[in-house]
Design a protein that fits this description.
disordered N terminus, Chloramphenicol Acetyltransferase, eight-stranded mixed sheet, alpha+beta, Alcohol acetyltransferase, 12 helices
Length: about 425
Amino acid sequence: MAGQAKKWYRLDSAGILYSALQREEYSAIYRFSAVMTAPVDPDALQRAIDAVMPRFPTFAVRIRRGLFWYYLEPNSAPGPFLKEDVSDPCQPVRFREDNGWLVRFYYYRSRISIEVFHALSDGSGALVFFRTLLAEYLRQLGHRIPCGDGVLDLNAPPDAGELEDAYARYAGPRANGLRLLPKAYGATGTAEPFYTFHVTMGFVPLDALKEKARQYGASVTEYLAAVLISVLLEKQRREHPYREKPVALAIPIDLRSYFPTRTLRNFITTIRPFIDPGYGDYTFPEIVSQVRHYMKLHINRQELRSAFTANVRFTQNPFLQIIPVFLKNPIMALNYRLIGVRPYSATFTNPGAFRVPDSMAPHIRCMEVILGQATVPRCHCASISYGNTMEITFAGTQVETDTERDFFRFLVREGLHVRVESNR
């Protein structure tokens, strides 16, 4: 990291939020894993980590707390170091531990995993980092892996576009306002003791899943979101509430498809497909149709821009600017509970297919993704595909297993073959 001693980075609007939410029992963490076709060579993987980190300066940082804001600065401390995997992944980040590193590396048998603090990057940026790391690891083993196809050149200097705050670049003149959305069904369960994190993964043939979604006229994301909403509607009904609330999902949308940028930092916003049982019962085809049409209507450049502009404006509020960070964090945490937790029943994210150069493909068996714990004891759901396998993960700190169990049973009743693994 020579020559970067005085360089520092402002957090983007998403990073500001995730840093403010950070506490001892919670961090916005996510994990990607690649299951290789051969056992991991930890020495070769550590050499790859050492080679790759300087090429990604916004990952090779530590977080600092200023008087008014957190900020990122280059981390010159030893590390980050590869570790043997743990039974409870995505544990909270503590800014003064691990020499301040905010990205972690693990291995177990043939599995290579990275965990990233969300203040650094979203899933799209982290997958570029991970793909480049896997390529360098294979090179360390003697394989010829070219650059390109999403693998960055380690001999090239970081591109300025990779470091930009795309939120600030594309924020528009009009924001939709951080309005208070209706409270959704909470879908919460009994909290486990700290730190017990349950992970259940289902593996589904991607071609069969695509065909099933096509039968409903939907994409894979729309179909899986509809399945999750359907399962949560039934869960709420079993609880016999006095009045049933809407079941709503937070679905992150990668903004790079709508606003050209090479940024490896955060550049996502969320949409909120929902079903309100107060209008009556819905069949599953009707739920799919509602989700599909909602996403078609609201995923457009103008509405997405207005949504993230609201977040940029909030962090640029002159009153908020002059409040010390120790007073600002509770304000932002309260805002997140009202805007980012209360209106949603669950989060579902699908970053899509993980693609690699042809020379890498024979060395990777499948991909996995885990979203870290929610701020309340309920499941997060995430999926990722590689080759002909779609991996779907439910992860959370709740005792109950009904959401993930009912979700995978639904897919089986739909005629899909599901292989399930869990750390429970």
